Amino acid sequence: MDTLDREVVKGMNHKYVGRRIVCVEMNNDPDPIPSGTVGTVQSVDSCGTLHTKWDNGRSLGLLPNEDKYRFVEEDKRMCTEPLFWGCNLFYNLKCEGCPKFL
Question: pTM of the prediction?
Fold first, then answer.
């Protein structure tokens, strides 16, 4: 996975750390977080991984463009493209940068 620019990572940490997040689906983990589990973002690393402390006691990161997730406050928004939940919010051109989620 490519690493992100230091300023992008700093901005992502500022924007996402402390936010509540819901795991929608993890595909490539041998012991995934169950769908529907809620947690709190602890940090974002240079690959854009959202390191999360889950309410079930586990800690496991969500990988942009691989895992599907959404932020709790997005439950209140109209999302017509759930296929793109968990896309890399800055770089996925299919959903035009997820303007509904920024």
Answer: 0.69
Q: Which long-range contacts (CB under 8 A, 24 or more apart) does 15-19 make?
A: 16/41, 16/44, 16/50, 17/41, 17/42, 17/43, 17/44, 19/71, 19/72, 19/73
Query: What's the rounded Cα separation, in Å, for the pair 83 and 81?
Result: 5
Domains, the chain: 6-95 (2.30.30)
The first and second tokens of residue 37, run together, are 């589990």
pLDDT digits (tens, 9 = 90+) for 45-97: 988 899 999 999 999 999 888 898 888 765 444 445 555 554 444 333 444 44
Please give the Cα distance from 45 to 28 (Å, whole number): 19
Evaluated on CA atoms 12, 13, 14, 16, the torsion sign reads positive
